[in-house]
Amino acid sequence: MPVHPDLSAFLELAEFGRLTGKSQPMHTLPVAQARADFERSSQILDPNPPGAVEVQVLQLSTRDGGVLDGRLYRLASTADQVLPTILYFHGGGYVVGSLDSHDSVCRRLALSGEFAVLAPAYRLAPEYPFPAAVHDALDSVAALKEQAELLHLDPQRLVVAGDSAGATLAAVLAITAANHPEQIALKPQAQLLFYPVTDMSVQRASHRTYAEGYLLETDTLAWFYQHYAGSAAERQDWRASPLLSGQTAAQAPAYISLAEYDPLFDEGVAYAELLKQGGTPVQLTVEQGLSHDFLRMSGIVESVDDIYRRALQWLVTNACG
């Protein structure tokens, strides 16, 4: 279908900014400026996130003796309830993105009161290249297990989730739990993957069809990958490209939500098929008329609220009810 009219208007403004020199593609910017611009975009895409959600600041221990910042989101009315947890990893190509840039996403996932949402601030490239983010994701699971009782979280009802590169980290955790259970502290009961990166090693037709003009650009993906996984060997590692994991043991049920206008569309479809072939229950949804990063667009596209509703309803019905 055509680009959603609300999104289309936003894309036209973005293109006008580029033509007039007021904005530049992310891949042409220094990393620090790209990060700052990405943070500012959250105020445009979703300026009024739900305020009814309580946020607790946490610290999560890592294997090297360090700590990651984290945030726990839940409704105040559930403070004394032991809730299942969505462990949520933000997007941003492993280079940009933060707890702040995806604060609205975590608030909206916690708004129903059915789940608590734990968001770790995993380390970013180029300062911390592959596989640092993977190690941080695994360490976040271990930290959740350690703190679950204190935080009133049910460690046996874990959902791994994320968008874009964050969805890749969630997918890696699900693969690890299925194939290498000794390497992960908890076994996820479900995975929510929104427009994941599943294969850094090649470009597919959607990389060319939606290369420019739909927020995420193919050249920006290449810029991200160069910072995070600079060598061909790293990009072919299944921890960077889950599609290359091959046939794995059946994993936790997966809800995969893709954007129609996204360079990553084809590899998302291919990953859903790989999971199905391995016996993993998969719910694949395609958000027609939308582009990459739609989870952060509640302020400009009204139908995004329904995307959250459907994903959470699937979780309650199929995995962590």
From TrEMBL:
Annotated catalytic residues: 164
Coiled coil spans: none
Keywords per UniProt: Hydrolase
SUPFAM superfamilies assigned: alpha/beta-Hydrolases (SSF53474)
Protein name, UniProt field: Alpha/beta hydrolase fold domain-containing protein
Pfam families given in the database record: Abhydrolase_3 (PF07859)
Domain Alpha/beta hydrolase fold-3: 86-295
Family designation: Belongs to the 'GDXG' lipolytic enzyme family.
Gene3D superfamilies linked: alpha/beta hydrolase
Origin species: Pseudomonas spelaei
UniProt keyword Thylakoid, yes or no: no
GO terms of molecular function: hydrolase activity
